[in-house]
Design goal:
single chain, 237 residues, alpha+beta, Sortase, Chain: A, globular
Length: 237
């Protein structure tokens, strides 16, 4: 084999190895987020089984019957002691019937902690559903703000983006929040995309349509628009 042939062969081997490493790296970049998403989903499913042994009313019931059934519950369906044993930052449990939004709500020392840590304290890009640090943990603020990620696999608060469609709003018009003191239900009256910095993110914010009643503001990111947020707001019923 001539010297030039050996050089060409060496270059080919180098290119093949480089391409192989690139394929492996690319596969890891795809697989790692998927694994993390599955881990987070698995964690929250276990939490549902541990902390909420009772099943929710089936979503195919007429809404007025569902709400009546929830209001008449003599005991909370949430095992708060079990949740506090895992994370003392628990403040509530949020449900929107007929969606995948069915999660514990925490309030951390700031608005950064639960962007990248799950309820159980595991580092994960899914994070947790969390109450804004400026909102009262007992949901007594005029405006209770709750944040959650818009995950690519449709988990956490991703379904909030569907409230841009009137048909989705009509099918899922109520936010249900269980607290250690009872249950709160909010009729959804507003769904829109707003700038990330907005008066909506104040615990004292009161829109005209609220009529003096307390409201809940659910907030998530908008794909491809880092400076915008999707907010869904409901009035306490």
């Amino acid at each position: 084999m001539t010297k030039s042939s050996r050089i060409v062969q060496g270059l080919l081997i180098f290119v093949v190895l480089a391409l192989l490493l690139l394929v492996i790296w690319s596969a890891q970049q795809v697989a790692t987020p998927l694994l993390e998403y599955r881990q987070a989903q698995g964690e929250y499913q276990v939490l549902r089984e541990v902390a909420r042994p009772q099943s929710l009313p089936p979503p195919d019931l007429p809404l007025d019957e569902v709400l009546e059934e929830i209001e008449e519950e003599s005991e909370s369906p949430i095992d708060w002691d079990a949740l506090r044993a895992i994370n003392p930052n628990i403040v509530g449990w949020i449900v929107i019937l007929g969606t995948h939004i069915d999660h514990p709500v925490v309030q951390g020392p700031d608005n950064a902690r639960y962007l990248s840590y799950t309820f159980s304290g595991e580092r994960n890009p899914s994070g947790a559903i969390f109450m804004d640090v400026g909102s009262a943990p007992d949901f007594s603020s005029p405006n209770t703000i709750i944040h959650g990620h818009n995950m690519q696999n449709g988990s956490m608060f991703a379904e909030l983006l569907q409230y841009r469609n009137l048909s989705f709003l009509e099918a899922h018009p109520v936010i249900i929040i269980y607290t250690p003191d009872g249950v709160l239900m909010y009729e959804i009256l507003s769904a829109r995309i707003i700038p990330a910095r907005n008066a909506v993110y104040s615990a004292d914010y009161e829109p005209e349509w609220a009529g003096g009643r307390q409201i809940a503001t659910l907030s998530t990111c908008v794909n491809g628009s880092p400076d915008q947020r999707m907010v869904v707001q409901g009035q306490l019923m």
